[in-house]
Structure formats: structure tokens, C-alpha cells
User: What shape does this take?
Amino acid sequence: MPKKISAIVITGNGTNCEMEMAHACRLAGFDKVDIVHISELLCGTKRLDDYDFLNLPGGFLDGDDLGSAKAGANRILHAAVAGGQERLYDQFARFIAAGKLILGVCNGFQLLVKLGMLPGLDGVYDRQTVTLIFNDSGRFEDRWVYLRVDSDSPCIFTRGLRGLYLPVRHGEGKFVPQDTATLERLQRQKLIALQYSDALCREATMDYPENPNGAVNGIAGICNETGRIFGLMPHPEAYLHRTNHPRWTREELPEEGMGLALFRNATAFLHGDVY
Assistant: This one.
């Protein structure tokens, strides 16, 4: 009998996609799914140690003051948990060391990047080496995009996928590495799990609007070296059922939306079914 697995979805201070992410976890087969306000973690009434899968949803953390998710990252890095000397970051570090899974979507991806947890090169998870900046279009982008999946990536969440069609909803989604050496390393280690692409999901593109933000090398999502931490700007939790698709009344589509596959891969990994 498979072991029981649990997921936590962190909310508060401006997130707005927590219900959808929790729903995705339940559909994917998680036995327990809790939406937890970050204040509950800081007060010590909830702990990351009690979960297997950490979800950081999209939204506008702290109104994106100081830049997308920067204030939220500082809170995690420096805020103490009530009743002791532990920082909230210490719980994140233990979570990673235990080999558990973390998924950050849109604002959650920005948070992981600003924390330094992505790409987390050489296992250093508190040093920022990449960032996400304002879209080249100079405006908020709300559209559906095609995504090329690197089948050689160690990313747990994209295993077995060939391409994806998902929505983006962001104003600061342009992926930029700190230097050429960092980009080359991401490429060499296959940490670029997703790229904006043509409609066949075969070739990465820099063309607008297929690449909605001007991301370097069309980068839409990256993982760490273990493949267990993954962040992406598109929203998989926004395409869980065929009726979420913008052309669902005009096309024959599978009942299950493409985005759910990422959460099912998380379930399979934690059950030890694959990998």
C-alpha cells in the first residue's frame, strides 16, 4: 500500500492562486493538502517538516514592492519562528535536505529565485544567481503559451512530457542569469526544463508573443541539480480540466488538462513509483 503523502500550499501577503494549487494536489492523489498562511509558520503552529510537497503559488507578494517577491524572500531568509532561535529559512533548508519536493509558480518562482533556491547551484540555496525582471513589452502579459520540455532535464515534474500549453499572467517574467557562465552551466546541466516555443513545442523562441516576456534563451522554467525544486512562470494549476482551455468549446480535448501532469509526477515520485 502506498505511503500517505501530504502537500502544503503557502498563502498570505498577496498570493492569489492557492485554491487552484491545492485543488491540483488533491486531483493528483495527495492524501492531505493544507493551505497554510505564512503567519502560521512564523507563529510555529504549522511546520514545513510535517509535509512532503511544498507549493508556492502565484500572486503579488507584498504588492511586488522592492521587485517581484523580494520582500517575501527577505521575510523567509531573516524572520524568526516564534518560540526559539530558528529562522523560517531553516525549515526550508531542512525540507530541501530531506529530499522533498518544492514547486514555485509565477510569483512562487520569483520567490525561489530571489531566495537563491533556484537554481541553487552546488547546493547553495541562499545566494541569488538569476533573476526575473519586467517583461520586454512593458506591460502585464495574460496569454497562453507553448512550452518545449527538455526530456534530458533532471526535473521530476516534467518527466515523460514532450510539450505543454499553459497560461502566463505576469508583469515581471523575463528570466535573466547574472552572467554568461551561469547561463552556460544551466544549459550544460540541463537545468532549463521549460522554454517558450513554437506551436509544435520543438524549438525555443525569442519571438513575441510566443515568448511573452523576452526571457533569455526563451527560459520559462528551471530546476535545481536534483530536479526536486522546480519553478516556472506559466501556471499549470490553471489548466487542470479541458474547460480551462481557451478553445474548449471548439476543439476535442482530453478531459484532463495538461497542467495536472506536473502534480501527478510529484505524486509518483513521492510514492516511489518511478525514478
The helical segments are 18-27, 38-43, 70-78, 88-97, 107-115, 180-188, 260-271.
